[in-house]
Amino acid sequence: MKRWTSILLGAVLTAAFIGPGTVTTAAAAGAHYGLALLWALTFSTLACWTLQEAAARLAICSGLPLAEALRHQFDGWKGVAVRLLALGAIVLGNAAFEVGNVLGAVAGLELVWPVSRPFLVIGIGLLSGALLWFGTLRMLPRVLGAFVAFMGLAFLVTALKVHPLDGALLHRLVWPSLPEGAGLLVIGLIGTTVVPYNLFLGSGLAQGEQLNVTRFGLTVAIVGGGLISMAILVVGTAVQGAFTYEALADTLGRTLGDGARVLFALGLFAAGFTSALTAPIAAAITARGLLADPSSGNASEPNRTYRITWLVVWGSGITLSLLDLRPIPAIITAQALNGVLLPVVAVFLWIATNDPRLMGRNGLTSRGLNLLTGISVGVAVLLGLRNLLAALQAAGIGPPLSESLLLKVAGGLTLVLLLCVSRYLYRLRRLRS
């Protein structure tokens, strides 16, 4: 029973990172580069598990979810600055993601149900708002788990119709390649799987749970989520030319029949709707931990800060969605920004889980997990810095650099950062042992 509960809690994380952003970015990667970028999803799934396990272990062993651990790790003006940075990034970022979540769900329904967009936005808003208002952090995982199971079935069945499970596909899962111009999509693929706000969400949900049981649930949910992301990329390979939801649905309908079109549409709706629930929840859990709300009682129940935060995120998403923004450009932009934000949160988590004062002797990250975490953080920083340098270059700041030179510069900066953090962690564990 406890393992089943842990899978349901893990399904909340799956629902959070498989949103319209995953559908858009993964399908676009398949449409433009075929199976060449599947390896990025293999890595991002491993990195996701590594960082989410650390976030959960932090909450279980220290009794402090990630947001509260940040408060304890930094004091004075540094603590205020870190809290404001994290709060602004997570809450404001999730409000932006909420627009894409709602519009992505609407786009899925529009593929099979030609109803006016405002009507669909209002309907999705009312349903998601009711679940958020009346639901608890113990009830909502059951709802999300059902949607995730349906979404996974829809995309996996469609993917097997598009491309058989053969040697070529398995080869692409483990053999890295970077076609010219694919860097931004690789950042997006990793950013859409290893989501910064998911670290706060997962850590908050894990508080009070058992570590071994939580690890089991995380493994099932994250591996399952990775397979769904890979299935979406495979489905995207069916598109010839410019990628849009309509183009992919039309291609599936022509080549595989109307059933495949309907499955894709419903899968897209489920991805958007589940993320429209988890984005406000993640922002609310983060805000509650960062602000040390005196009304906080049972961590599994809503309180004042929790309700205000999710109402702001949910309300912003619904209101802006009624302005009829097109989701695809906004979602890809948000995913690229997410790739830059991730390294900051990952480094914070890496430091916290190596602090004996927080974790105790038994909860500290082992050497093996530290190696995996270091690799995950390193690649996240590398891709994030590469994206930042490319954005500065596009804005006319700095000299023009080729793709390979961008990666070399980002790689050098990443190496320096990792060496500094590793040295700090070594001293931290020795001084507090």
Automatic annotation (TrEMBL):
GO terms for molecular function: cadmium ion transmembrane transporter activity; manganese ion transmembrane transporter activity; symporter activity. GO terms for biological process: iron ion transmembrane transport. Its main location: membrane. One of its GO terms (cellular component) is plasma membrane. InterPro entries: NRAMP_fam. Pfam families: Nramp. It is found in: Membrane. It is a multi-pass membrane protein. Keywords: Membrane, Symport, Transmembrane, Transmembrane helix, Transport. The chain crosses the membrane at residues 36-60, 80-97, 117-136, 143-162, 182-206, 218-243, 263-287, 308-325, 331-352, 364-385, 405-426. This is NRAMP (Natural resistance-associated macrophage protein) metal ion transporters. It comes from Rhodothermus profundi.
